[in-house]
Amino acid sequence: MNSKFLHKLCILAATLAAAPAFAQDVVKIGILNDQSGPFASYQGIGSVVAAKMAVEDYGGKAAGKPVEVVAADHQNKTDIGIGIARRWYENESVDAIFDIPNSSIALAVAGMSAEKNKVFIGSGAGTVLLTGEKCTPNTVHWTYDTYAYGRGLGKAIVQQGGKKWFFITADYAFGHDLEKQAAEAVKASGGEVLGSVRHPLGTADYASFLLQAQASGANVVGFANAGDDTITSMKQAAEFGLTKDHKLVGLILGMNGLPALGLKFAQGAQIMNPFYWDLNDGTRAFAKRFAERIPSKAYPNDMQAGVYASVIHYLKAVDKAGGAKDGKAVVAAMKEMPTDDVLFGKGYIRKDGRKIHPLYLLQVKAPEESTSAWDLLKVVATIKGEDAFRAESEGQCPLTRQ
Fold first, then answer.
1. Torsion (CA) 236, 239, 245, 251 in degrees, nearest 10
2. What are the pLDDT digits (tens) for 25-55?
3. pTM for the whole thing?
4. Pfam families per the record (predicted)?
5. How far apart are CA 317 and CA 188, in angstroms?
6. CA 191 to CA 166: how far, in whole Å?
């Protein structure tokens, strides 16, 4: 075999080996979240399962192309999260990124998604900046935000007599934003904020923070944190005896944390949520299917449900836009179509990227009220989406002025 022929054969082999990577024509979505830290049980593998269920329920294809789901752990580190997003966008043909608990990472990925003309759909992210000053034509904020939760609970608790507040706050963008929104609602409703303290993500010992809360003279302790931080801090507060003369308010007290906290400690606590598994036959059926597929057998929370619903609507938009490669066009299609799915019902996406749907004021059941492992909450009130989320005119999103 002469050298020229061998050289040509090597080139042909290399070309054939590379061909599938370039020829592969799929719609590729990435689930980027915490799979090993304080938010792992609140999004983690559950969000990946939810995305795969959505793809299957949609039929596995969009714009005539197969849909693929990939996932990665951002470890709550902005450099790692943005590095994964860059690799996905530049080297692995990912068209859209979903979820992203941790607002600092979400804001960075939102910016990169606009730069690369991809799509970012936040379900785990909370910061209201995503639909405010940092909004982009490539971003949709789906499930909740700090305004809806902080304002809604702040107002509700003050109306119930909890007028003197002290905040224990996670020291990053999400926590700061959540405290700000709740504090403004407390003051606007006639309450007052007597102080606050900030803690690092993943704190194990809250003793010094709780002592400051006790000494402040407040009758409400607001926990402006999330995930395991909320459960750990509220559990230690109960052990310190704060429940005797303080109302404990977990501003992002997720359903998945309640078994660890225990209904004895959590009973009577109120939370805001746009989804609960026991709302209707559709949510109950989804929860049962979800629990069968997740290793922990847990029922889905609002953020995991948000991944499912947003993937469904995204795929509808890919069909409408005729493909997934122009992220801005896909998001525009998402905004043009009303939303309608089994978990959130009917809704819509505003110009600023805020997805609008009802929220529910839910109350944690007493131990004797609960009839099964995930029978944890009951609906106290329903709040229209237009009343729960910040008005578009107040957000300072440049897209609303176009």
1. 30
2. 999 999 999 999 888 888 999 999 999 999 9
3. 0.87
4. Peripla_BP_6
5. 39
6. 11
